[in-house]
Amino acid sequence: MKKYNFNAGPCVLPRVAVEASIEAIRNFDNTGIGLLEISHRTPGWDKVMNECEALWRELLQIPENYKVLFLGGGASTQFFTVPSNIMSKKAAFLETGVWAKKAIKEAKLYGDVEVVASSADKTFSYIPKEYTIPTDADYFHITTNNTIYGTEIREDIDSPIPLVADMSSDIMSRPIDISKYGIIYGGAQKNVGPAGVTFVIVREDLLGKVERQIPSMVDYRTHIKGGSMFNTPPVFPVYVMYETLKWVKSLGGVEEMQKINEKKAGMLYDEIDRNKMFVGTAAKEDRSLMNVCFVMNEEYKDKEAAFMEFSKERGMVGIKGHRSVGGFRASIYNSCPVESVEALIKCMQDFEKENA
User: Fold this and answer.
1) Which of residues 251, 280, 298 is at a domain's end?
2) Bond prior to 14 in cis (omega within 30° of 0)
3) How is the beta sheet containing 90-95 ordered, strand by strand?
4) Overall number of domains in the chain
């Protein structure tokens, strides 16, 4: 049976990237040695690192005064790395979900934290709109896409202070005005590769201003100087990311990805709104293009387990909602094909015909 992968992360990858990475494991760069066994100091690996960074710069039009880093530790490590590097006294946060809350917790270790607005009052089902960014804070932190709740900030915010964004789950899904951000970071395992590598885009002039001593591995300047190879980089995840970005470019870049993502999400949200058995959980104006969250309509609450089994029998994988909110979640990142969304829609329609 064909499987349709809607896992929230790690998640579906482009088949061409997977196949190229498998071949590299067997024989990297015609060296006769596999990717998992090579030294990261070989010329072939230098080429991959350089070309991977070049793809990031090309696809997102990253200005020269920003540095691009490929690190380990996941986005969760950046929750304390960011304040360690650029927080002198105070940081401001928009609280839109679990990951924002975790970032807030870490930032409090370094100084004062002001939560300028929160959507916790409605289980993070919307993005707060009315708030003032404090100009006395060192930076303003946002989480652009909230995987658990299916909300997304789809426009670049104008901030009077450096804007820091966790873009773990929607990077490369749309064009970004990089100049509006001080730091963008995220785990790769949604749109740009497998788990194991973290990307950081940092405006260099923000660094070196805090008075605290920063451990070498936490200091962005260490990794800038070392070309992301101060220590052994996560070689395999970086390679898969490199192949994934080549695929994004081949499709027409982030502009084309946005069109495809809007089409996929539009199809699925239209079905949720039409189907009498389901209801979306996120505010319509804030619906994510990456994570589509929905539940059974109140009248059909007792059918939830039945739909899970029904969808499983038809090859749907990973549509169970996060344990904290329940229901269903279809993660339709860049690499999720339109075919998978069409299959899920057909599954929902068939279930309605048999049960409504």
Assistant:
1) 251
2) no
3) 66-71, 198-203, 183-187, 163-166, 140-143, 90-95, 112-118
4) 2
Structural domain of 85: 15-251
Residue 177 included in any domain: yes
- Asked whether the beta carbons of 69 and 207 are under 8 A apart, the reply is no
**Position 356 confidence tier, pLDDT thresholds 50, 70, 90:** confident
Q: Are residues 202 and 277 in the same domain?
A: no
Quick check: is 239 in a domain? yes
- The CATH number covering residue 105 comes to 3.40.640.10
189-218: per-residue pLDDT in tens? 999 999 999 999 999 999 999 999 999 999
Domain membership of residue 7 (yes or no) is: no
Q: How much is the pLDDT for 349?
A: 98
Q: Which two tokens stand for residue 111?
A: 């100084």
CA distance 280 to 275: 10
Q: What is the pTM of this model?
A: 0.97
**Do residues 261 and 333 share a domain?**
yes
Q: Known catalytic residue: 247?
A: no
99 annotated active-site: yes
Residue finishing a domain among 193, 225, 251: 251
The catalytically annotated residue of 67, 190, 264, 320 is 190
The two three-digit tokens of residue 195, written as one number: 């788990």
CATH number of the structural domain spanning residue 266? 3.90.1150.10
Q: Please classify residue 272 by burial: count the beta carbons closer than 10 Å to its beta carbon, then call 0-12 exposed, 13-18 middle and 19+ buried.
A: buried
Residue 287 phi/psi, 5-degree rounding, is: -60, 135
Write down the catalytic residue from 99, 138, 286, 320.
Answer: 99
Is 190 one of the catalytic residues? yes
Q: Is residue 320 in a domain?
A: yes
d(Cα 282, Cα 288) in Å, to the nearest integer? 8
- Identified catalytic residue from 90, 138, 166, 264: 166
